[in-house]
Amino acid sequence: MVRSALTPNKRIGEGPVPAAHLVPAASVVVAILLTALPIVVQSGWFPNFGFMVLIAWRLRRPDVWPAWWAAPLGLLNDFLTGAPIGLSVTVWTVAMLAADFADRRIMWRDYWIEWTLGALLIVMDQLAQWQVAAWMGARLPFASVIPPMLISIAAFPLFAWAVASIDRWRLRRK
């Protein structure tokens, strides 16, 4: 039997896992739930896990979900993290729209461009959180935002790798 060059090399029984289209959103929800872990610190040095997974999925697979999915996921993040309601909704939606804009402007992307896009979106998220905290009366010096920003930027490739692994599992690619 001759195989066409257009048909993928699949074995019988291989293919996407059941409900594969829900895995990206579920992974973002699990990342948001990581904030419920009992970690006690004096300053927030850890990254915004849900946002990192969201932008890793968006940069990995732009077609996984439309931009409006950022609003309900951001609302869930606001509820679970104690952020002002609407902060993550706004920031996450703007990040998805900015990624859509970048997709239309950039013809090709490699590792460094994706890391730069991720870093810019992380900086935008951290600055928005800092500004909203200042508007609400928190006396938070800007220097306290720099460590979590740098840790998040440095950890972004790890989140991108985790999302790529989940995506391979989701689509049963080896």
TrEMBL record:
InterPro entries: Cell_shape_determining_MreD (IPR007227). Keywords: Cell membrane, Cell shape, Membrane, Transmembrane, Transmembrane helix. It is a multi-pass membrane protein. Pfam families: MreD (PF04093). The keyword Transmembrane helix applies. The chain crosses the membrane at residues 21-41, 79-99, 111-130, 142-164. It is found in: Cell membrane. Belongs to the MreD family. This is Rod shape-determining protein MreD.
